[in-house]
Amino acid sequence: MNSRINFISGRPFFSSWSGGKDSCLALYRAVRQGGTPRCLLTMFAEDGGRSRSHGLSPDIIVAQAEAMAIPAKFAGAGWDGYEQVFLAQIAKLKEQGLADGVFGDIDLEPHRRWVERVCAEHAIVPHLPLWQAGRRDLLHEFITAGFRALIVVVDDQRLDDSFLGRQIDWQTVADLEAAGVDACGEEGEYHTVVIDGPLFSSALQLRPGDIVRREGYSFLEMNLQHNQDVRCGASD
Q1: Per-residue pLDDT, 155
Q2: How far apart, in whole angstroms, are the C-alpha atoms of residue 146 and residue 119?
Q3: d(Cα 201, Cα 234) in Å, to the nearest integer?
Q4: For the chain, which has fewer Cβ within 10 Å, the N-terminal or C-terminal residue?
Q5: What is the structure's pLDDT at 152?
């Protein structure tokens, strides 16, 4: 099936959840299109200590899930075994009645082909709500909708540490573009953690820790503070 045009209205789905802005905006669009989120599926490193690519701790992912009232599911895998573990997870979700999945890919064809191929293994319908939208248009939607996200990973060859911890706002967008990278970060220039927005009943309070360098990337460790203030009246 064509993941770019499938409709999700009235259907329960799982979200392929990184904790960052793209998976969050894809979830937001799917909800606004009438879908019902039943699960956030996050892939972690093999030891389960941090999420893939974004380097987030399990308690941060759980806090996001609780703020959105959506159950979280984790699986750990090395890169070599990533696909088989992911396939096993979506097979379990299919057994639980979830035949639709939402993914945050924007315009990288190899990513879309992978999503469609693995979903086809278990007759999952993949939905890519952000597919082929303008990258800057997506940033505009994310910011104006009221989402807040912090940069927690940078590619050392493209960005320096000064971007770590910064919120995605128009000044940061301008500075990213001035640094010569795509401001949306679709090609891995940076990764984020979403801490608030219209899907959230409460904002996450995170405290920055050390900068850790791994495999050409710098990760800003974030620690969850548990004295979070609950906001009333957030939309679902």
Answers
A1: 97
A2: 31
A3: 5
A4: C
A5: 98
- Cα distance between residue 91 and residue 99, in whole Å: 9
Instruction: Determine the distance from the C-alpha atom of residue 195 to the mean position of all C-alpha atoms in its chain, rounded to a whole number.
Output: 12
Instruction: Classify strands 12-16 and 36-44 as parallel, antiparallel or unpaired.
Output: parallel
In whole angstroms, give the CA distance from residue 119 to residue 99: 9
Residue 230 pLDDT greater than 80, yes or no = no
Q: Which CATH number fits domain 145-225: 3.20.20.140, 3.40.50.300, 3.30.420.10, 3.90.1490.10?
A: 3.90.1490.10
CATH class of 12-127: alpha beta
Helix (H, G, I), strand (E, B) or coil at 40: strand
| Burial grade of 79 (CB within 10 A; 0-12, 13-18, 19 or more) | exposed
**Lookup: tokens for 118:** 């693995």
**Numbered ranges of CATH 3.90.1490.10 in the chain:** 145-225
Q: What is the pLDDT of residue 231?
A: 39
Question: Would you call 231 helix, strand, or coil by DSSP?
Answer: coil
Q: Please provide the average confidence, as pLDDT, over all residues in the chain.
A: 92
State the pairing for strand pair 148-155/217-225: antiparallel
* Higher per-residue pLDDT: 1 or 199: 199
What percentage of residues in the chain have a pLDDT greater than 70? 93
